[in-house]
Amino acid sequence: MVKLTSVVVATVAFFAVSTSAQHSTALHTFTADQLERRSDDGVISKRDLSAAEQKIILDTHNKYRARHGAPPLTWNAKAAQFGNNWIQKCQFKHSGGKYGENLAAGYKDFKTGIDAWYNEASKYNYNRPGFSMATGHFTQVVWKSTKSVGCAKKFCPGSNWTIYICNYDPPGNVQGQYRQNVLPRKK
């Protein structure tokens, strides 16, 4: 891994071939403090998200959490780095790490991904609280005892999509703790 120290601003173009063999180009601009490494193929990866992206992630989560009486989350840089490390291989699967984790792909940005996670609320049964594959993203978003979140994203040229990952500390979706952590929406 090569540290980049003298780059002030770099513009990197990622080229991907879609299934219809059409070429698309996505331009990404990174500041020096966001650059971390150049991979073997010369692509520069981001170390972390911009302050504006972090704010959108926190604001979106906290808006939904407030609806369910859950306190606001703070940013967790360690959880973000963990997620960033995990998605570098562009494998769309859970890490199995120590954090609670939500994944998304095929969305235009974090906000739309988080919105989709929250929209699972319509399927949650408060009379029979517990885990469901249909509502697990939602329950993690509003899990009352979770204190912080860290997220990362990576564009994956092979699949031509961006993977979004959010890691939560302490994790949610703990059996036997749904009733006190996933509260009905306030009126």
From TrEMBL:
<dbReference type="Pfam" id="PF00188">
    <property type="entry name" value="CAP"/>
</dbReference>
<dbReference type="InterPro" id="IPR035940">
    <property type="entry name" value="CAP_sf"/>
</dbReference>
<keyword id="KW-0732">Signal</keyword>
<dbReference type="GO" id="GO:0005576">
    <property type="term" value="C:extracellular region"/>
</dbReference>
<feature type="signal peptide">
    <location>
        <begin position="1"/>
        <end position="21"/>
    </location>
</feature>
<dbReference type="InterPro" id="IPR014044">
    <property type="entry name" value="CAP_dom"/>
</dbReference>
<dbReference type="InterPro" id="IPR018244">
    <property type="entry name" value="Allrgn_V5/Tpx1_CS"/>
</dbReference>
<protein>
    <recommendedName>
        <fullName>SCP domain-containing protein</fullName>
    </recommendedName>
</protein>
<dbReference type="InterPro" id="IPR001283">
    <property type="entry name" value="CRISP-related"/>
</dbReference>
<feature type="domain" description="SCP">
    <location>
        <begin position="52"/>
        <end position="176"/>
    </location>
</feature>
